[in-house]
Every structure is written in structure tokens, then in C-alpha cells.
Write a structure and sequence with these properties.
single chain, mainly alpha, 12 helices, 0% strand
């Protein structure tokens, strides 16, 4: 718990570092350009497709007529744009996470290591290719889980639980690997994943709930669809900052856990060698003599 809280406040303070703020600009620019570009070229056609599909459902038609009876007929005009925006949310979240992992996490891990763990040996247990494959595989599993869980969202409490859990699991998988890729060996990474699975997953889930903050932006977008060109970049920037904070939190936690693991291994080394030393002394052999 001490490590959990210590890494939390350190990550919060590091978010104010000029280098972190500067690094958050690149994913924002890339994601905003992609989102606005796709919206410029495909928004109208996608909107027509959604409206066509909605009109083909009798249940939707009944609901629209009911709204018109209540004097809320104008809501049908924003129904398709709102649905389209909410379909785009998971895509934006996942791509934002991947961009942060690619462009920000290595630099922020280097910043944390430089300022706190300068003496920590780099064992290069991961690689860029392995990181990309790990992230893509984890993302695929998260997307499958997200799609399978959609029917459960109709149960009111679960919509507040399942998506953050899935985002949290994905954040935990991606951020932990990238945070340890440069410093930990493969065996050390597995040991940390096993020994600290619950706190690391907790960090991921809390990050998932923090990632729900842009939902307020999307709620505004539901009422002011015309402001989407402004609201989308703002939401993307919030996602970027949340994932940047998560990346710093994981970096502080995992590197401190790695340092503790190596201290424990160093402390255990003499105890493991002691029986062998006693045996050699008893047989009048030098300590460096080979044994049979």
C-alpha cells in the first residue's frame, strides 16, 4: 500500500513537469488530425448509414413517435449523431492509449529512471517489436471482451463497472510491459507481474475510471453536436493526460518494485551460498574450488 500511494502522488507531481506536458502534445495533434480528417471525409456518409439503420427498426420508430407526442420531436435529429459519437468513443480511447504507449511511455519511463533510479541496471528484457505485439494482442482481447459485454450494459449498475474494468485491464497490460521493458529481465518482469498483480490491476482500474472523465465532454456533445469539432480534440487531450498519468504511475510503481526485488535477491544470495560454503570448509576445500 505504501508503494501504491507513493507512486500515485509522485505520478501526479510528474504530470506538472514541462517535459510531460510537452510530450502530451504529440499524441493530441496526431489523434485530433486523424479524428477530424475522418470526420471531414466520412461523417456525412456514416450519419446517413446510421439513420437508415435506425429507421429500419420498428422499436426506434415507436420511440421517436412517443417523443414527438411529448413534444420532444427535435431529439430525433440528434439521435443518429449521438449514436455515432458513442460508437467512436471506444476507438478513440484505444487508439489514444496505443499512441501514449508508443510516443510517451518510453520517454516518461526514461524521465522517472533518470530522476529516481539512475543506478538501476538496464537488463533489456523487452523490445519494441515485442511491445507492439503485446499491446496489439492485449487490445484485441480487450475489444473482444468489450463487444461481448455490451448486452450487459443494459443492466444499469454494470455499465458503470464493466467498461472501466476492461479499460483498466488493458491499461495494466500495456503500461506495465512498457514500463519494465528496458530495465527488467524477462524473469524479473514475470516475478513482478505475479507478486504485484492486484495493485497493478488496481492502478489500471482506477485509471479506467479516470478515463471516464471525458464522458462529461461527450454528454455535452449529445446536446451540442455542432460543437463536436471542438469537443473531440478536448476529449482526446483529456484521454491523453489520463493515460500519461497512468503511465507515470505504472513507471514509478514498477521500477520501485524492481529495485526492491533486486535488493531481496541480493540479500538472499549469501543465505543460498552458506550451505555450500559450510560443506567446502568441512571437506577442507577452498570456497572457489569446483564440487563434484
Amino acid at each position: 500500500m505504501n508503494l501504491f500511494l507513493d507512486s500515485f502522488w509522485r505520478a501526479a507531481m510528474y504530470c506538472l513537469h514541462p517535459r510531460v506536458i510537452a510530450l502530451s502534445i504529440l499524441p493530441l495533434v496526431i489523434m485530433a488530425a486523424i479524428s477530424l480528417g475522418l470526420g471531414y471525409f466520412f461523417w456525412d456518409s456514416a450519419l446517413m448509414a446510421v439513420r437508415g439503420n435506425l429507421e429500419s427498426f420498428e422499436l426506434v420508430g415507436t420511440m421517436v413517435r412517443w417523443l414527438e407526442g411529448l413534444g420532444l420531436g427535435n431529439l430525433r435529429l440528434v439521435l443518429a449523431p449521438v449514436l455515432l459519437l458513442f460508437v467512436a468513443i471506444p476507438v478513440i480511447v484505444i487508439v489514444s492509449l496505443l499512441f501514449v504507449a508508443i510516443f510517451m511511455t518510453p520517454a516518461m519511463v526514461a524521465l522517472v529512471a533518470e530522476r529516481r533510479f539512475a543506478q538501476l541496471e538496464r537488463k533489456k528484457g523487452g523490445s519494441l517489436l515485442a511491445s507492439v505485439l503485446w499491446s496489439l494482442g492485449s487490445t484485441l482481447l480487450a475489444v473482444i471482451a468489450l463487444l461481448l459485454s455490451i448486452p450487459l450494459w443494459l443492466i444499469p449498475p454494470l455499465i458503470l463497472v464493466l467498461p472501466p474494468l476492461i479499460w483498466g485491464w488493458l491499461t495494466y497490460r500495456v503500461m506495465c510491459y512498457d514500463a519494465l521493458a528496458d530495465h527488467a529481465s524477462s524473469e524479473e518482469r514475470r516475478q513482478i507481474f505475479k507478486a504485484h498483480r492486484a495493485p497493478l490491476l488496481g492502478i489500471g482500474v482506477l485509471s479506467g475510471y479516470l478515463g471516464a472523465a471525458p464522458s462529461l465532454i461527450w454528454a455535452s456533445g449529445a446536446m451540442f453536436v455542432a460543437m463536436a469539432p471542438i469537443l473531440v480534440p478536448v476529449a482526446i487531450w483529456i484521454y491523453t493526460l489520463v493515460f500519461a498519468f497512468s503511465s507515470l504511475w505504472f513507471a514509478h510503481y514498477t521500477l520501485a518494485a524492481l529495485e526492491q526485488l533486486r535488493r531481496q535477491n541480493s540479500a538472499l544470495a549469501p543465505d543460498l551460498l552458506a550451505p555450500e560454503a559450510i560443506k567446502m570448509i568441512a571437506t577442507d576445500k577452498p570456497l572457489d574450488a569446483p564440487t563434484t
